C-alpha cells in the first residue's frame, strides 16, 4: 500500500469533480485504487458516518482497505449508484440506511431500473390503439384483360 498527500486547495476542482469532496469537508482521507476499474473511498473526519476518527480506527480502516473488506466506490458512470447511496446516507443520518449496506451492490439501481421498465411497459400497453377505419372497403373488381392476337372472343 502506498500513501501520498494531496493539497486540497490546489486540487480542489479534481477532488470535487472526481470524488465528491468539497473544500469545506477537508481534511479528508482519500483512498484510491488504480488499475481497471479505478475505485476510491473518501473518509470524512468528524462526521457521524466516519469510520476513522482516531488513530486506532484509522489503522483498522487502512487494514480493511488493504484486505479488500472496505467497499470502494467505482469512478465514472458505474460508480454513480454507490455515490448516490453514500450521499443519501450522509443527508439522512436519522434513518438507519447503513443497516442496508449488507445488500449486494447495485441492488437499488436494479430495483429502480425494473420499476422504470415496468412503467414503460404499462405505458405501452395502456396506450390506445389507432382508431380502426370501419368504412366498407371497395370490392375487388377484376380489370378487363386486353385482347391478344390469336385469342378468340367467346360468344
How does this structure look, described?
The chain has 155 residues and is an alpha+beta fold. The protein has helices at residues 12-19, 55-67, 80-91, 107-126; strands spanning 28-33, 39-44, 73-74. The longest helix has 20 residues, at 107-126.
Report a brief summary of the structure:
With 155 residues, the protein is α+β, with helices and mostly antiparallel strands. The protein contains 4 helices and 3 strands.
List the topology elements.
Elements: H1 12-19, E1 28-33, E2 39-44, H2 55-67, E3 73-74, H3 80-91, H4 107-126
Antiparallel strand pairs: 1-2, 2-3
Number of strands: 3
Mean pLDDT: 76
- Cα radius of gyration in angstroms: 33 Å
Counted by DSSP, the helix tally is 4
Q: Oligomerization state of this entry?
A: single chain
Please identify the structural class as seen in this structure.
alpha+beta
The arrangement of helices and strands along the chain is HEEHEHH
How is the largest sheet built, in terms of strand order?
1-2-3
Distance between termini? Answer: 106 Å
How would the global form be characterised? Answer: elongated
Main sheet properties = 3 strands, antiparallel
Query: Percent helix among the residues?
Result: 25-40%
- Residue stretches low in confidence (pLDDT < 50, at least 5 long) are none
Strand content: 5-15%
Amino acid at each position: 500500500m502506498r500513501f501520498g498527500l494531496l493539497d486540497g486547495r490546489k486540487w480542489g476542482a479534481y477532488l470535487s469533480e472526481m470524488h465528491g469532496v468539497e473544500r469545506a469537508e477537508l481534511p479528508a482521507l482519500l483512498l484510491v485504487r488504480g488499475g481497471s476499474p479505478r475505485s476510491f473511498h473518501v473518509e470524512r473526519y468528524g462526521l457521524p458516518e466516519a469510520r476513522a476518527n482516531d488513530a486506532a480506527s484509522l489503522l483498522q480502516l487502512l487494514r480493511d482497505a488493504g484486505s479488500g473488506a472496505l467497499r470502494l466506490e467505482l469512478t465514472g458512470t458505474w460508480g454513480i449508484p454507490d455515490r448516490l447511496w453514500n450521499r443519501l446516507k450522509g443527508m439522512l443520518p436519522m434513518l438507519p440506511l447503513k443497516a442496508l449496506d449488507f445488500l449486494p451492490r447495485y441492488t437499488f439501481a436494479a430495483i429502480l431500473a425494473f420499476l422504470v421498465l415496468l412503467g414503460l411497459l404499462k405505458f405501452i400497453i395502456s396506450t390506445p390503439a389507432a382508431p380502426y377505419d370501419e368504412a366498407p372497403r371497395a370490392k375487388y373488381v377484376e380489370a378487363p384483360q386486353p385482347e391478344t392476337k390469336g385469342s378468340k372472343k367467346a360468344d
